[in-house]
Amino acid sequence: MTESLKSFFDNLPVNHWSSLVVVALSILFIVYSIYFFFSKEGKDERGKKIISTASFISFIVTLIILFALSNLFYDVASYNKLAYSWILNFAVLLISATEAIGIVILKKSI
Q1: In angstroms, rounded to a whole number, what is the distance separating the alpha carbons of residues 62 and 81?
Q2: Are 89 and 22 in contact (CB under 8 A)?
Q3: Three-state SS for 18?
Q4: String of b and e for 77-107 (b: at least 16 CB within 10 Å)?
Q5: Assign residue 16 a region: left if phi > 0, alpha if psi is -120 to 50, beta otherwise?
Q6: Which pTM was predicted?
Q7: d(Cα 7, Cα 18) in Å, to the nearest integer?
Q8: Three-state SS across 27-67?
Q9: Could you report the per-residue pLDDT of 6-27, keeping only the tens digit for each?
Q10: In the 8-state DSSP scheme, what is residue 71?
């Protein structure tokens, strides 16, 4: 498995477009979560329930990501600097996406 990840990082474009897309999406998801937190809807009782549920789900995802990274991180991230930064940026993307998507889904269901 680590060999396929190493070949993935070898084939990343030189201009790092994948890293820029990951960072841009992370910022977008984080801004949406902060916007919902400070919005009128996020301050009422229903909004606080949505935020707490989405935060708990993203906490679980964070623990799963940390467990996965503890097993793969040193093999792949020590491969080169690009792999290190891309893996960390992708972890932030997954965590922030879980929070934002959780808010969107819970807004419709709660």
Answers
A1: 22
A2: yes
A3: helix
A4: bebeebbeebbebbbbbbbbbbbbebbeebe
A5: left
A6: 0.85
A7: 15
A8: HHHHHHHHHHHHCHHHHCHHHHHHHHHHHHHHHHHHHHHHH
A9: 777 777 765 577 788 999 999 9
A10: H
